[in-house]
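Continuing the series of single-chain predictions for the mutant panel. This is the parent chain; the variants come on the following pages.
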Amino acid sequence: LERDTPLSAEIPLMQRRDHLLQRISDLNRHKLLPLLRKRRVEAEREVGIALLQEAQHAGYDADGDRNRRYQSDEPMLALLGEVRGLRVLDVGSGNGYLCRKLARPGAIMTGVELADAFHKIACRREADDPLGITYRQASVTTADLLPAESFDKAVSNYVLMDVLDYAAAVRNVFRALRPGGILVAVISHPS
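Parent structure:
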């Protein structure tokens, strides 16, 4: 793929992600930091759109997809532990399914999602059936997006492997966690 090749649904997701990472690497080599920041957010939006398209084909609904329902949610929730009355951050909240799942037993939820389509779905579900969830449309890599020491726990479910600057994302999440707070992150195996 050439540097300015538009990313389309015909290109497999992993190839698109690798292409985006290469584009970011190229920009880094040329030390074009202002352009890098802008292109990174654009690239993350493109990945979000691609993931939404893929999710629609995978049966992703208000309760996640089969993989989340039958494989990853149970151990992830066990690691997360009790959430009643705690402030919990959902990093890459998608359509809000996990925010809703955690808000029902009493978590005070905030979801951060970059993809416009996913963010709109989550906000619409919250408007239709309010659970007190706050949704923010932004990249979790944005510095000072979240107030320092404002969350008891954070969860990231199949997100960090698709965030181009995952180190910045993790730094921001840990900055937002209170002392003793935990982050539970689920990622896909790279192979």
